[in-house]
Fold these 2 entries.
Entry 1:
Amino acid sequence: MFDPTAFENMKVVMEGCLYDYDLDGEIIITDRNDWVNLAKLSRKFEMTLRKNPRSKVFCTFILQADLANLTAELLPLSNGVQQSGASVFIKTTLEHPENEELYKKSAERLKTIWGANHSVQQHIRKNALNEHAHLENELTISFNRLIQEDQIDDLQNMAEYMVKTVNEMDHLIRTFN
């Protein structure tokens, strides 16, 4: 038997939180990925949800840990506690017609939900050959620090904020249509 890493423990806690919301009918889990990169000795876990089957808003929890994070956890004297833990990102993807005001409002709304102290990157993707196609408005929240195992309770709050995010962003898109 082996002792699970902080990455593994955080992944299991977040899965449980999000599946509880799914079982309660508040959201639908639409995708789940658990990658191990053997070339770089890194891990990445993603779990995506949406409000309902018709919703054009997706919210993805991303947990990443690399070799430095694992080494710091398993061999604490090698490179210090500061590298121990995992990075967390929340990616929100909205599908909607092109609308400059909606770009700004969606970024503002995310900062209202998650807090202004987190950085938000926004990328817009569209099919340039089809002017009638909806575009993808992708907003990624970075917490700018490693999440450590002693902060595992924060994941429950993140799950709650993810549910709030899909609900509020879904409402925001509907107000522009």
Note: The longest helix spans residues 154-176.
Entry 2:
Amino acid sequence: MLKKLCSYPGCHKVVEAGVKYCDRHKNTDREKYREYKRKRMENEEEARRQQFYNSKAWEGFRANQEAAQLGVDIFEYYTTGIVITAEQYHHIEEVTEAWHRRLDRDNVIGLSEANHRRIHKEYDRGYMAKKKMQRTLCDMLQRFRREFGDSGGI
């Protein structure tokens, strides 16, 4: 069997290939994530945002959007013509910037994981790139509604 060193910095214990840490350090990732999450929740705005995403209001709204948008990644459909499943429901205007639009059906669009990352990467390019992408997403969502209604078929 193949062996490798434990991934914990400075540890020289040998572990099986495919195992990240030795027994002594096996909880490292879990502990790091707990600490990361704890620090994030110290920020009031982030705690409020996380509370919203875990709420019944968001879960119900998200389910309604999924049904209305037929579970389709609208961005993919209008950029490539291919129908793929939406895995995320993305706030076009982010919750941190437009709290009042968090449950606005004109502000939430279904996306695949890959397109969700792609759109956030575009948002991160700068103010103008973000505004342009937001306009594009709004236009696509409105077009989808005109063409398919809130419960039509493709």
Note: Helices lie at 28-41, 44-53, 56-68, 74-80, 113-123, 127-148.
